[in-house]
Amino acid sequence: MRKLHIFTALALAAPPALAQDATPDAVATGGNALVSLIITLVIGAIVGWLASVIMKGGGSGLVMDIILGIGGALVAGWLFPLIGVSFGAGLVPSIIAAVIGAIILILIVRLLRGAAR
Predict the structure, then answer these.
(1) Which Pfam families does this chain map to (predicted)?
(2) Could you give the CA distance from residue 117 to residue 110 in angstroms, rounded to a whole number?
């Protein structure tokens, strides 16, 4: 009996609309997307934790740190080019920019919490 290749088995088991996408490249891309998501969450948590420690918050919990880290990276990616600030290319400058963006978010949250009281 002949063994089926894993991608052939996936193509045969998939619904007809998805069968054409079950190529090795399509399956590998899905795996890369999951790895990218995990890396983003881990780096977001680290960046958010670092920003909250810098701001003397002592950490805001894992979920809030991830939100602050990812949000900080988004703020940095949007705001800094608008005002003409560049930290350079690469991982370390991106992390520095994300930490600064997360600090900006922490300041905004603290201002909004103070205004709500």
Answers:
(1) Transgly_assoc (PF04226)
(2) 11
Half-sphere exposure in the Cβ direction for 79 (13 Å, CA): 13
Which pLDDT does position 11 carry in this prediction? 37
Question: Sign of the C-alpha dihedral, residues 46, 72, 67, 104?
Answer: positive
- Note whether 105 and 75 are within 8 A (CB): yes
**What's the CA gap between 101 and 55, in Å, rounded?**
12
pLDDT recorded at residue 29: 60
Residues lower than pLDDT 70 in the chain: 1-30, 57-60, 117
Burial call 27-49: b when 16+ CB within 10 Å, e when fewer: eeeeeeeeeeeeeeeebbbbbbb
Tens of pLDDT, residues 85-96: 888 888 888 889
